[in-house]
Write a structure and sequence with these properties.
- The chain is of the alpha+beta class.
- Strands 22, 23, 24, 25, 26, 27, 28, 29, 30 and 31 form a ten-stranded mixed β-sheet that branches. An eight-stranded mixed β-sheet has the order 5-12-11-10-9-6-7-8, with helices on both faces. Strands 15-21-20-18-19 form a five-stranded antiparallel β-sheet.
- Helix 5 (about 120-135) packs across helix 12 (about 345-355).
- The longest helix has 27 residues, at about 355-385.
- The chain is elongated, with a radius of gyration of 31 Å.
- Mean pLDDT is about 90; it is low at about 85-110.
């Protein structure tokens, strides 16, 4: 009995929820082997979802081995599917519940940190002074507006550092900017202001707070000199939220003339400007422009600042400076809300500033972070001098930079799920990139607002990486990014083709298209685009990207969504075609060897084996002890004038493999498609592997077995293939 309730508001797709439910029912024995599932249409009616959603879930389970499909009959629970050994989701569940990852990131304690970035000795001294010299202050509740001693220090510091003119009584302290924005929203309501303008792109949490308060939100574009003041409302009382010193996420700086212009707009329209001056103390190039608040003579600027970047993240102390009329409104509501910031930390920070430690530490970290920023940008350029894959943006200030990653993805068809699938793939890729960085202890965040097709933007926090480790960490992170992008989409079964571009032309494109059609047919799906459409898309990519010699990866999932993108490419050095490559044997089988479908579990295991052994490739050995193929290639053996390759039904029928078979026939060589026992591999004279990137590559070793890389037949095949491809 199917009795699942799907959550249409969940971040998980409906087909994922359904497949997880059926998988668990089978694993727990509530759905028995041989039991028939409701038809696609029946299940769709039962759950009030589309037939396509049900089909995607069923096919996913069929691929995992939980279901069997019988033509003209339906889907049935596969024999042995309840065995825990077949539970492909068990590892995923363990990861999700193991507590080692949160939203794709490692636990906060496992991110790297640099003890040089803060003087904890002096901070501890100040904290000890608070506890020993003024313990009586800790027996009373925290001041709702913020501790007077801290507000006094903030007011004095802001005047000296940012030109902000205020009294301590205008300063409000809280735990985080978002809490302060909630206070501002309450005050704006009291002022009968119903409209808020935010920067686009901009800091989303603030926009969401104003939206939740019911304000009418206008998103104003950001240019190189900040928010487009000309597009702010006229004759409508409005609050405009801006980051003039280091706009998030573009890094735009509003020049002095534009600052005067926005103040004139506020005065002319009886409006308010909310100035978020985060990271203003951490500008490494050029002279900081004075804060808007210090230029304002009409009491129309709310100034917001934070200590998070200049102290350490665990100290969540932020503050705002209210114009005097708004301060009086705040005092009317102040007693309704408790202080959310630790009184002990406030008093410690006040003493830290009073003794001059804050300013000393700030000068130190400004110099340190500047060096780290330069090292980070230099490391990125060294990893990708052309910037075609990754480049750094907004690299003038702060504790992070923006990374632009060119995935070169082009959507060919959106499929039955439309733009939702495109967005899902983008989110999956972003999460994969975040997770790969987190495994290295590096903190990365996504910026959805900037993402475009073929481009992903990430925030990379370099400030807490020790200076000596930055170059190595950045290099490893970018290598992992390349690997993550190569894995393509996930979360939905898909087939793929890797197409080689040589001299600006696709190699064997018709053959790749035909094999794609066969792979899709095995899943009961027709190709969602014609050969001519594919050819035209590739021609556009080659022309627009100036592609001469590179691989493109084409993916089509079972919803009919299809994409093509530049896949990071590694062609063997010319010397390897003379010396041959070393390989190792690896126990593993493809789930569906005749379908070119990504098997990520096998791919990851094979990659780990390659890295561990230092081999060029690993050759898969099935449960019968036969060598079937390489993890990313087909394999051939030579004995006398005979060429042997494993049977087509046991391997992925590679396009290059079929060309090699044609070449062998044209040369009059005997070719046998028979099983090759691993224990008999040493009986052969020579061996080679084939593939889109490899073409025909001699094998010098398989484990401790050695082969003749200068074998006459092998060299004839290499020459024949080169002639066939027009090299």
């Amino acid at each position: 009995m199917i009795s699942v309730e799907l959550d249409h508001n969940s971040s998980k797709t409906l087909y994922s929820q359904l497949s997880e439910y059926i998988r668990e029912e089978i694993s727990e024995g509530r759905l028995a082997a041989g039991e028939k599932l409701p038809s696609l249409r029946t299940m769709a009616r039962m759950l009030d979802i589309s037939v396509t959603t049900v089909k995607i879930a069923y096919v996913q389970l069929q691929i995992e081995g939980y279901l069997d499909s019988k033509p003209n009959s339906g889907f049935y629970v596969a024999a042995g599917a309840g065995n825990a050994n077949n539970d492909a989701a068990s590892a995923q569940k363990e990861t999700e519940s193991g507590g080692h990852a949160v939203n794709g990131e490692t636990a906060a304690g496992s991110f790297k940190y640099d003890p040089e970035s803060f003087d904890f000795i002096k901070w501890r001294k100040c904290g000890a002074s608070v506890l020993s010299d003024t313990p009586e202050l800790l027996f009373t509740e925290a001041d709702r507006q913020g501790e007077p001693a801290l507000r006094k220090e903030i007011a004095e510091y802001l005047y000296k550092s940012r030109g902000v003119i205020c009294e301590a009584d205008q300063v409000i302290v809280s735990a985080g900017t978002q809490q302060l924005v909630n206070h501002i929203a309450r005050i704006l309501r009291m002022m009968d202001i119903e409209n808020v303008c935010t920067e686009d792109p901009g800091y989303l949490p603030v926009r969401n707070i104003f939206r939740d308060w019911g304000f009418s939100i206008s998103r104003i574009p950001v240019k190189q000199d900040g928010i487009e003041i000309e597009k702010l409302p006229v004759n409508i009382r409005t609050a405009a939220y801006v980051c003039p010193q280091n706009q998030f996420p573009t890094g735009a700086v509003m020049p002095i003339s534009r600052r005067h212009q926005i103040l004139k707009w506020a005065a002319a329209n009886d409006s308010i400007v909310i100035e978020d001056d985060y990271n203003s103390e951490l500008r490494y190039f050029g002279k900081p422009v004075p804060a808007l608040q210090g230029l304002d003579s009409g009491g129309r600027v709310v100034y917001i600042g934070s200590f998070t970047s200049t102290l350490f993240p665990a100290v969540r102390i932020s503050y705002m400076v209210l114009p005097k009329p708004m301060k009086e409104l705040y005092r009317q509501i102040m007693m309704n809300y408790d202080q959310t910031c630790s009184k002990t930390e406030q008093l410690t920070l006040a003493l830290f500033m009073q003794r001059g430690y804050y300013q000393t530490n700030l000068r130190k970290v400004r110099n340190l972070y500047s060096r780290k920023l330069q090292e980070t940008v230099s490391a990125i350029r060294d990893c990708d001098p052309s910037g075609k894959f990754i480049s750094a943006k907004n690299s003038q200030s702060g504790i992070n930079i923006i990374l632009k990653i060119n995935t070169r993805v082009r959507t060919i068809t959106e499929g039955t799920t439309g733009k939702d699938r495109t967005e899902e793939i983008r989110r999956e890729l972003v999460q994969r990139l975040i997770s790969s960085a987190a495994k290295l202890g590096l903190k990365v965040r996504g910026i959805d607002q900037l993402d475009r097709e073929g481009q992903i933007y990430l925030i990379f926090y370099y400030n807490q990486i020790p200076l000596s480790q930055i170059r190595g960490d950045v290099s490893e992170m970018i290598a992992d990014f390349r690997s993550a992008v190569m894995k393509g989409s996930s979360g939905m079964p898909s087939v793929y083709e890797v197409i080689r571009i040589r001299d600006g032309k696709p190699v064997f494109l018709q053959e790749h298209y035909d094999r794609l059609g066969r792979s899709l047919a095995a899943l009961g799906i027709m190709p969602p685009f014609s050969f001519d459409i594919l050819r035209g898309c590739i021609d556009d990519m080659v022309r627009d990207g100036g592609i001469e010699n590179h691989n493109l990866k084409l993916e089509v999932d079972i919803s009919g969504h299809s994409v093509i993108y530049m896949s990071p490419t590694h062609y063997p050095d010319a010397a390897l075609y003379e010396s041959g490559v070393r390989t190792e044997l690896f126990s593993g089988e493809r789930k569906n060897p005749n379908i070119k479908m990504m098997d990520q579990e096998l791919r990851d295991a094979a990659d780990a084996a390659i890295k561990r052994s230092g081999a060029f490739e690993v050759l898969l050995v099935d449960r019968k002890g036969n060598i079937t193929e390489g993890s990313r290639s087909n394999v051939f053996f030579i004995k006398d004038n005979k060429v042997v390759t494993p049977p087509t039904e046991q391997v992925l029928p590679g396009v290059t493999r079929s060309k090699v078979i044609d070449v062998a026939g044209a040369l009059g060589l005997e070719l046998h498609q028979i099983p090759v026992a691993a224990e008999s591999a040493g009986d052969y004279d020579a061996a080679f592997i084939s593939g889109t990137s490899l073409e025909v590559l001699p094998v010098s070793e398989i484990g401790d077995l050695h082969f003749d890389v200068h074998n006459k037949v092998l060299r004839e095949i290499i020459s024949g293939y080169s002639a066939c491809c027009g090299q």
